[in-house]
Amino acid sequence: MIAEYLTLINWENISYLVITILKIVGISLPLFLTVAYLTLAERKVIAAMQLRLGPTEVGYKGSLQPIADAVKLMFKEFVLPSASSKVVFVIAPLMVFVPALIAWAVIPFDEGIVLADVNLGVLYLLATSSLGVYGVLMAGWASNSSYAFLGSIRSAAQMVSYEVSMGLTLMSVILMAGSMNLTDIVMAQQGLWYCILAFPMFIVFVISILAETNRAPFDLPEAEAELVAGYNVEYGSMAFALFFLGEYANMIMMSAFTVILFLGGWLPPLDIPIFNAIPGVFWFFGKIAFILFIFLWARATFPRFRYDQLMRLGWKIFLPFTLFWLVLTASVMHLMGVA
Prior knowledge:
Blueprint: H1 2-8, H2 11-49, H3 65-74, H4 86-102, H5 121-142, H6 146-177, H7 182-187, H8 194-197, H9 199-212, H10 224-227, H11 237-262, H12 273-276, H13 280-301, H14 307-335
């Protein structure tokens, strides 16, 4: 009887499922570790720029500080405000963290090393990056706090504003590559990276992802001076940690997105033997580290924008400029007989 049931099992599908789960774990665990130590890197980089030491007490030169912070947050009490909408209040942190995690399904780390090599990878990434705003809105509304709600409204307006310029920038890249598949976009940059070919769009995209992830100098949804920490003011313990993890995971994901679109993904900067000998995965993560450094550098360097300045930059400067560049790209490619 057991032998008959065993013959009915599709072992090929089961093995595929097991391999997929192992791949997901292989992506998720290093991502969690990277998110934890990105917080330490941020504190160390900003401290160095401000002539301070940063964390030094826990572990060798503060190397265990992220673990200490995680343990502290895990043992803190989770407070549920009595006036809040309980279910939405609990779900909101997950809505911020999960989209930043599932976006990695289509990110190619090297040629052939990708969980799901879909043809609409750019559209998938744009959709998942947009989902985070729902978690922020849910957190602000469910907290039943004026400060939290104002922070969430600011975040929604900010993310929608800069997604427009991001979308037009992506359309320019898609036109040049002739594909929405992320692997194809990387391979199209073998001769020349798009950060050189479309340098203004690279700058616009980097500034847009700073605004999209609510990072300084565009951290208005969390402006401590006027909003007392913004949409997550009522959260503590691991719920607050999920917001924190979601923000930093989104930073890493957006950096990977930038590397794929403009910095040639896993491709080396020059086609010479010494560079080609280095595995593409190392080039890929090295470039991500460079974009992440820009995030930290911007926070340590620039003062926070006023809200009207933020909106003016998005709608009156970036939108017309990206639209002009899109038309220019399409015109040049048509004249060259490419499109």
